[in-house]
Specification:
By secondary structure, this protein is of the alpha/beta class. It contains 24 helices and 17 strands. Strands 11-12-13-14-15-16-17 form a 7-stranded parallel beta sheet. The chain is globular. It binds one DNA strand of 29 nucleotides through helix 2, helix 4, helix 7, helix 9 and helix 14.
Length: 574
DNA sequence: GCCGTTTTCGGCCCGACTGTTTTCAGTCG
């Protein structure tokens, strides 16, 4: 069982404990341990010792031994017992807004309700109204919540809501009652998947600002409305939350509502050790506020450098900020060229010349064209007999656009046995090879990992595309040991892709940090099939920032001369 | 269940809002 699976089970245990009304601190201990495990660099295997696990902050004797048992037996007694005593439907019920573990437990114990459909029936039969702490309104809200669960999963792609969030934010910022405002929450932290859109604003007229907010044309429904907090639902089902404070409080509120919760908790603990209380209204020492004009000053109170929002995930940023070791994160303008582009030679809908023209307009110096290979018949992959034409057209296009460089590549399928799908003499004709999995997804973890490592060891492989194969909110990653993939890439001088398609964002930022530590270089690639997808590299830059990447970690920050040398050298040395 | 420059016991982040109550429980972030 790998780190991710074990961390998932620890989180599940926490949820199950919650539904069993356990000690809240025990619940948090399991959540913290899950997080700590995932953030750590420990690689789990038969040789993993309980002692090594205990060294991780947040994992103690008990959970260390539980993890060890999970590694060895793929199973855990308390987990099974909890699962047996807790109907699966109760976990589903947690998705219903306004319904939490306490109420779910009460309904289960007293009305035998163990699924969303049973709960819906009970509501329509009016069975909840007379229970203690329930009532007419609660019953109605639960019914509404059930409808929301049915209609939406409650999670949304960051990229799908960026524009709408910006538009709403602009309205708020332009409102005459607003002093300062910012997008906050997971959107400000550039999380790949978000639950809602958060906005923080300072004002002298909270009530008027709330009226303005709840009357926005985008608001389909008002969820809550108060003087400091309101929430509306948009047509799409996503909620926009706003929090208002007075202007002196703005920096603290912005920090607080940017989160993450885990980052805030960690910072609060640190504050507490220094005798400082921290909440959304200020930093307080001996009851007196410590004045801060902005977030920079807030961090300075703790002798910390400014932590960019993307890093606020309690992944080591607090310690790094205290030691002056925060990374100088990559910026959009660092990207000098774009790789992993599909043209009308396979399933893209743009010609090579169109790509060049568009990239030149975008200020780029080079393109790495890489159409699908022959095995990808569904994508009209380039057949052996078409290779000559494909290469020739790239050369001709390059000569048309002086000063612009085309690197000739192909996205070669990794076959089930780990070999690439062209013979070596064909692979050798390209400047770079992107190796990718597009078939046989259902191998075991061992088989899949070995398959990918074999492709990494292939002397022609330059880059491994979308290493986990996940499609956000749609398809789980393949069963693959990503730590071993990163290690193999490090050992074989192969680069990894950060696929910037907003549905992928793969390699995941949590693993990018590990790749960086292993000195594995990253390509940020849009995997573009249309001209308008070329700009998608921006989502890759955001994700790279979340993964602590600096300019030097990303290959396509090089200018065209440097990258030409880099690819040539790589080809020769491998 | 975890943790410790006061501690191996006794803490563990904090506040807004709703709906239920008539001072509070539950949920959410």
């Amino acid at each position: 069982m790998d780190k991710k699976e074990i961390s998932k089970i620890l989180n599940e245990i926490a949820t199950l404990l919650e539904l069993n009304d356990e000690n809240p601190f025990k619940i948090r201990a399991y959540q913290n341990a899950a997080r700590a495990l995932e953030a750590s660099n420990i690689s789990l295997g038969a040789e993993t010792k309980i002692k090594d696990l205990e060294k991780i902050k947040g994992i103690g004797k008990k959970i260390a031994s539980n993890i060890k048992t999970l590694i060895e037996t793929d199973d855990l007694d308390i987990y099974q017992k909890l699962k047996q005593s807790t109907p699966e439907g109760l976990i589903d019920m947690l998705k219903i807004p306004s319904l939490g573990p306490k109420k779910i437990k009460y309904l289960y114990d007293n009305l035998d309700i163990e699924s969303i459909s049973e709960l819906e029936l009970a509501c329509t039969e009016n069975k909840l109204v007379n229970l203690p702490n329930f009532g007419q309104k609660t019953q109605e809200n639960i019914l509404k919540g059930i409808n929301i669960v049915k209609k939406f999963t409650g999670k949304y792609l960051y990229s799908d809501f960026l524009d709408e969030a910006e538009e709403i934010f602009k309205s708020i910022k332009g409102c005459k009652y607003t002093v300062r405002a910012s997008i906050a929450g997971s959107m400000r932290r550039k999380k790949e998947v978000i639950k809602d859109i958060d906005i923080v604003a300072s004002t002298n007229a909270p009530r008027q600002l709330m009226d303005f907010f709840t009357k926005l044309k985008q608001a389909k429904k008002i969820i809550v409305k108060g003087d400091t907090k309101s929430s509306i639902m948009l047509q799409s089902g996503i909620n926009v939350d706003i929090r208002t404070v007075n202007d002196e409080q703005f920096p603290y509120a912005l920090h607080h509502f940017t989160g993450s919760k885990e980052h805030n908790t960690a910072l609060r603990s640190l504050a507490k050790k220094n005798g400082i209380k921290i909440n959304e209204y200020g930093l307080f020492k001996d009851g007196k506020i410590i004045g801060c004009n902005n977030e920079e000053e807030l961090f300075n109170v703790f002798s910390m450098d400014y932590i960019p929002p993307e890093l606020r995930e309690n992944f080591g940023e607090i310690e790094a900020a205290r030691n002056g070791r925060l990374p100088k994160l990559i910026e959009m303008e660092d990207i000098k060229g774009i790789f992993h582009i599909h043209t009308d030679y396979s399933d893209g809908n743009m010609s090579i010349s169109q790509v060049c023209k568009k990239l030149i307009d975008m200020g780029m110096q080079y393109a790495g064209i890489s159409d699908h290979s022959k095995t990808a018949a569904y994508a009209n992959g380039v057949k052996d007999s078409e290779i000559d034409d494909y290469l020739k057209e790239m050369e001709e296009a390059e000569s048309k656009f002086s000063g612009f460089k085309i690197f000739k590549g192909i996205e070669s399928d990794i076959l089930a046995d780990g070999s690439l799908d062209y013979k070596n003499d064909i692979l050798a004709r390209f400047d770079f090879i992107i190796a990718a999995i597009h078939s046989s997804f259902n191998l075991s973890e061992e088989e899949m990992t070995n398959r990918m490592i074999k492709a990494i060891e292939n002397k022609y492989t330059t880059i491994v595309a979308h290493p986990s194969g996940r499609i956000l909110l749609a398809r789980d990653p393949y069963k693959v040991n990503i730590t071993r993939i990163i290690n193999a890439a490090a050992d074989n001088n192969v680069d990894l892709e950060l696929n910037a398609n907003p549905h992928r964002l793969d390699l995941d930022w949590r693993m990018l940090k590990y790749a960086k530590e292993k000195n594995v270089k990253i390509f940020i690639n849009p995997d573009a099939h249309h001209l308008e997808n070329l700009i998608d590299y921006r989502y890759g830059v955001y994700t790279a920032r979340k993964g602590w990447l600096e300019k030097e970690d990303v290959i396509n920050t090089m200018d065209s001369k440097q990258i030409a040398d880099y690819l040539k050298k790589k080809k020769k040395e491998k």
